[in-house]
Amino acid sequence: MSIQGYVTTQEIVDFIELINPEFLSTDINDMIVNSTYEIINKQIGGEYEEQELILHQDGRGTKEIFCPQIPIVNVTNIAIVALSGEETPFIINGEDRNIWWDANTGLIWMRPTEETNVEINNAINLFPDRPNSVKIAGTFGEIATDLVKVLQLMMILKQYSLLQPSLYASDIISEKIGRYEYKLANASNVAPDNQRKGLDGYIEWLFKQLPNQENNMGLEVI
């Protein structure tokens, strides 16, 4: 079984070594890593990656359309596609540019040249009202940020702490050394936002920081 994830083998080893200095790359459980990857993707409704794609979008007889894939990383071509299949490209950069887009929302709006106006049957400033009348080519999506990597590492640690709690203790609330006892948090005296969250709480908090999430992560799936 190969590892699927947003973190590398070395990143996993470097992180787990902080808790168990004897941890080796051979101790990595592929199933644990893959399951945390799947849980993250389930929550975001996809996966973090960049893809080079050619998309076809329906026009609606309006000045704007929305790209079905976001965020837009880079655009290499946007063109009107005639019923014959012939393409009339927009100018995507330079002084004569006549097409613009918003990378985050996917909104694309146009200012056609005279040549393009003829191609769309004199429907000036309108995308043709028919299926697959617009071609969009470029790079779409986003790569995993450090936030996503930390989230997966914490989820991996959670799994190890369940399987081998003596080696991967991760939720110490108080610690006693000789005659001295140290309490890291007292829920009754600390405001909720400042209380020590513990690993479950931290994982939940990290999920809530991901963009465009409904913040409905259930800890029971971890």
Written description of the protein model:
There is one protein chain. The protein is α+β, with helices and mostly antiparallel strands. It folds into two domains: 9-48 and 144-189 and 197-216, no CATH class; 49-142, no CATH class. 27% of the residues lie in helices and 22% in strands. The protein contains five helices and nine strands. The chain has helices spanning 9-16, 30-44, 114-119, 146-163, 198-209, and strands at 49-57, 64-66, 72-81, 87-89, 99-101, 107-110, 134-142, 174-177, 180-183. Mean pLDDT is 80; it is low at 116-123 and 213-222.
Write the layout of secondary structure elements.
Layout (H helix, E strand, L loop, with lengths): L8 H8 L13 H15 L4 E9 L6 E3 L5 E10 L5 E3 L9 E3 L5 E4 L3 H6 L14 E9 L3 H18 L10 E4 L2 E4 L14 H12 L13
Antiparallel strand pairs: 1-7, 2-6, 3-4, 3-7, 5-6, 8-9
Instruction: Work out the count of structural domains.
Output: 2
What level of helicity do the residues show? Answer: 25-40%
**Could you report the average pLDDT, rounded to the nearest whole number?**
80
- The helix-and-strand class reads alpha+beta
Spatial order of the strands forming the largest sheet: 1-7-3-4
Ends distance: 21 Å
Please, how many helices? Answer: 5
What characteristic shape results from the CA principal axes? elongated
How much of the sequence is in beta strands? 15-25%
Number of strands: 9
The residue ranges in which pLDDT falls below 50 over 5 or more consecutive positions are 116-123, 213-222
User: Over all CA atoms, what is the radius of gyration?
Assistant: 25 Å
Biggest sheet, open or closed, and with what strands and sense?
4 strands, antiparallel
What is the chain-wise order of helices and strands? Answer: HHEEEEEEHEHEEH
